[in-house]
């Protein structure tokens, strides 16, 4: 139970910072933990697909991602805060995505 | 000429306008809505395959009478092949999509008429209008016509949210409309670039112009057009960065409204996605972009679903996450992958409607969506609980239900395409989907009932149960005999590679 | 110095779009946001109209006595104009719905600040 207590405490800390009023129950703690593991493993597996471009690049990126993600844990509460229903953050991400898409399609296709 | 093809779009629009006129007369609203609702899935089954040229203007090459007396610079050039009219094409894949969309629209309207005490003509009007718009998106071979219906679909979605009159529905509707006012002009700008380069808005003609060398495929304006249309597609289907607004939209609508709204998103995804693949298949980067966005949608959608305590929002995020599976199928670019992706689209539209209507019964009985305040509903109505559980099984891909077949095909396709990582991610996220669903199911149905929870003493309408059973039957049939659908979709997939 | 009218028009369209995006992102007043969003649509419409422009061209109406060859060579391209009309109608209806919702929100909250209404 030691590890589980650490997890619950850590989630509670983050939630207090974000002034979230929801209580931390067993269920929400395990859900957060599961989401965390899912996120990290999916990102790492997806990064393996870089092998199509270059093997060494893939190894470096996967290792770097692994260290970065572990160091940044817990990610999920922050990610949830970032994807809130606030219109300002929504429109910011929308315009960011528009810029990235146009840049990638315009320069990426011609130069890569 | 096949008159039934335009009728698929014209009938729901006419019905919508009529409903608006007679919206105070409850009985006539109900009768008209049910009759046209039954006709919606029936027409695509009766219609013959073919093309429909509005105004009867077929291409000059098929119409020698009209070509007479025209100057050589028209009849001797590519103009001879061009489509002067707005063209609708109806083939086997469109048949399946329009049929499923019509069926979901019918079930959603049928359920709404029995769950809402006073039948509102305006609500049904919006549902029919949206269905007509999305049907047109699926059928249209004219990209500007598609844009018009894209906007109409966005407006009717906003209308459905407002008409639901849930808490904060106006705010969500305004946010959605603001984002529409950014994304739709961007889509139009992309179309304008295509028009400027090829002088045409007919998709077949645009492809002809690109493939025959009339336009340089590496022209920067063409690449820009691809990016802009891609952005419009993200908005229409609710992929990241639009996933949070899309899930909010689902959660603010009433359950039957949400069931229809998600079908709109799925079919807009398919309709525009196919067009992007058709026009820009010469850019390998498009497929990479589709896969990246789909992966993002899957990861963000499903992990966010796990974090929610409101069950409507949770299903909303799951619906967005499941879209990623379709995108991966399309992005793989192989015939097997595209067929599997399109099959998954059909399955997802059915299953998510199933889940939304199923969970709608909880809202109907208690009026609460917060899972922290719910519990012990199994005792109330075990049969409905069983149906809801089966809907969750279907979404996670438990055999013998339909998503099992399509997800299996997707995994196979990703392995044959040389990207087994995608297969692993899909299996992993299916497990998490199942876990998310079971978490909600446990809190709502299985754990002891909280003392302060009040359950309203009214029966769940028979129409809701019938809808759930119909959707379950379709899930079972498609799960046992997937070739009914995949056989029809293969032709389209072959044409796309 | 004579500026190419088509080029100038394209630049105006681009400026309108960028201005609209800026307003949508940074302005707090909902009505101002709506005006910005209308700018985006207007910019795209202007772009479409400009596409159909033909230097020295004639109106695309086939007058009696005109030879088909001259008409085909010098008439400007009618498709963008037809499209713009439809697009303006759609834009106007979107605008009307947006303003309608803002009226309802103003009645409910007593403010049209986007930060206070849409920020949760």
TrEMBL record, chain B:
For whether the record's keyword set contains Transmembrane helix, the answer is yes
NADH:quinone oxidoreductase/Mrp antiporter transmembrane domain mapped to chain residues: 140-431
Q: What is this protein called?
A: Energy conserving hydrogenase EhbF
Q: Which residues form a coiled coil?
A: none
Q: What is the lineage of its organism?
A: Archaea, Methanobacteriati, Methanobacteriota, Methanomada group, Methanobacteria
Please indicate which superkingdom the organism of origin belongs to. Answer: Archaea
Q: Is S-adenosyl-L-methionine one of the keywords? A: no
GO CC term, one of those recorded: plasma membrane
From TrEMBL, chain C:
Gene3D superfamilies (alphabetical): 1.10.287.3510
GO cellular component, as recorded: plasma membrane
**Protein's UniProt keywords contain Plastid:** no
Q: Which domain of life is it from?
A: Archaea
Q: How does it sit in the membrane?
A: Multi-pass membrane protein
> Where in or outside the cell is it found?
Cell membrane
List all membrane-crossing ranges. Answer: 6-27, 34-63, 83-106
Chief location of this protein?
membrane
Q: Which InterPro entries match?
A: CPA3_antiporter_subunitC, NUOK/Mnh_C1-like
Q: Which UniProt keywords apply?
A: Cell membrane, Membrane, Transmembrane, Transmembrane helix
Q: Name one Pfam family in it.
A: Oxidored_q2
Q: Which NCBIfam families match?
A: PRK07375.1-3
Tell me the protein's name. Cation:proton antiporter subunit C
């Amino acid at each position: 139970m030691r590890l589980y207590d650490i997890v619950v405490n850590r989630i509670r800390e983050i939630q207090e910072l974000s002034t979230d009023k929801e209580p931390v129950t067993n269920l929400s703690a395990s859900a957060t933990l599961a989401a965390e593991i899912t996120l990290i493993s999916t990102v790492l597996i997806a990064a393996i697909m870089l092998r199509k471009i270059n093997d060494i690049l893939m190894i470096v990126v996967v290792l770097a991602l692994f260290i970065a993600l572990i160091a940044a844990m817990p990610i999920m509460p922050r990610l949830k805060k970032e994807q809130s229903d606030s219109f300002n953050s929504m429109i910011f991400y929308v315009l960011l995505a528009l810029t990235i898409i146009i840049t990638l399609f315009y320069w990426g296709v011609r130069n890569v | 000429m096949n008159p039934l093809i335009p009728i698929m779009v014209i009938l729901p629009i006419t019905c919508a306008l009529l409903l608006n006129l007679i919206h105070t007369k409850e009985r006539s609203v109900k009768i008209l809505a049910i009759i046209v609702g039954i006709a919606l899935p029936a027409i695509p089954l009766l219609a013959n395959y073919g093309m429909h040229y509005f105004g009867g203007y077929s291409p000059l090459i098929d119409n020698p009478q009209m070509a007479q007396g025209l100057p050589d610079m028209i009849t001797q050039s590519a103009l001879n092949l061009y489509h002067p009219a707005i063209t609708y094409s109806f083939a086997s894949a469109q048949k399946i999509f329009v049929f499923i969309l019509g069926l979901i629209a019918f079930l959603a309207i049928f359920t709404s008429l029995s769950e809402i005490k006073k039948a509102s003509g305006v609500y049904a009007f919006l549902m029919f209008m949206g269905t007509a718009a999305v049907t047109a998106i699926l059928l249209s071979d004219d990209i500007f016509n598609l844009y018009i219906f894209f906007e109409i679909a966005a407006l009717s979605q906003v209308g459905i949210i407002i008409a639901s009159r849930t808490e904060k529905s106006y705010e969500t509707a305004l946010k959605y409309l603001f984002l529409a006012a950014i994304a739709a002009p961007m889509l139009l700008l992309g179309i304008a670039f295509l028009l400027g380069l090829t002088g045409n808005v007919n998709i077949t003609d645009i492809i002809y112009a690109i493939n025959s060398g009339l336009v340089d495929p590496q022209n920067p304006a063409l690449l820009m057009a691809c990016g802009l249309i891609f952005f419009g597609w993200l908005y229409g289907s609710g992929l990241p960065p639009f996933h949070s607004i899309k899930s909010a939209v689902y959660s603010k609508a009433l359950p039957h409204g949400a069931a229809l709204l998600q079908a709109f998103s799925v079919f807009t995804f398919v309709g525009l996605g196919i067009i992007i693949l058709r026009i820009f298949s010469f850019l390998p980067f498009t497929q990479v972009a589709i896969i990246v966005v789909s992966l993002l949608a899957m990861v963000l959608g499903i992990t966010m679903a796990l974090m929610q305590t409101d069950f409507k929002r949770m299903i909303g995020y799951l619906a967005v996450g499941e879209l990623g599976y379709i995108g991966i199928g399309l992005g793989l670019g192989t015939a097997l992958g595209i067929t599997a992706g399109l099959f998954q689209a059909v399955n997802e539209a059915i299953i998510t409607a199933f889940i939304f209507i199923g969970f709608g019964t909880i809202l109907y009985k208690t009026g609460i969506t917060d899972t922290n305040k719910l519990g012990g509903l199994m005792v109330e109505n075990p049969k409905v609980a069983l149906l809801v559980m089966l809907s969750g099984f279907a979404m996670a891909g438990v055999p013998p239900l339909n998503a099992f077949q399509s997800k299996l095909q997707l995994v196979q396709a990703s392995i044959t395409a040389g990207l087994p990582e995608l297969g692993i991610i899909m299996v992993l996220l299916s497990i998490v989907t199942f876990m998310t669903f079971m978490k909600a199911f446990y809190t709502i149905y299985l754990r002891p009932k909280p003392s302060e929870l009040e359950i309203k003493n009214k029966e769940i309408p028979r129409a809701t149960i019938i809808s759930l059973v119909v959707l379950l039957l379709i899930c079972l049939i498609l799960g046992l005999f997937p070739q009914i659908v995949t056989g029809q979709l293969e032709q389209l997939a072959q044409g796309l590679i | 110095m004579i500026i190419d009218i088509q080029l100038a028009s394209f630049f105006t369209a681009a400026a309108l779009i960028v201005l609209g995006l800026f307003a949508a992102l940074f302005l707090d007043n909902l009505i101002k946001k709506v005006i910005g969003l209308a700018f985006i649509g207007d910019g795209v419409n202007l772009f479409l109209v400009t596409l159909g422009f033909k230097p020295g061209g004639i109106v695309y109406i086939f007058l009696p006595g005109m030879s088909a060859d001259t008409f085909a060579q010098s008439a400007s391209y009618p498709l963008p104009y037809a499209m713009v009309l439809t697009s303006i109608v759609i834009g106007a209806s979107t605008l009307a719905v947006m303003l309608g919702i803002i009226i309802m929100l103003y009645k409910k909250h007593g403010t049209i600040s986007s930060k206070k209404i849409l920020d949760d």
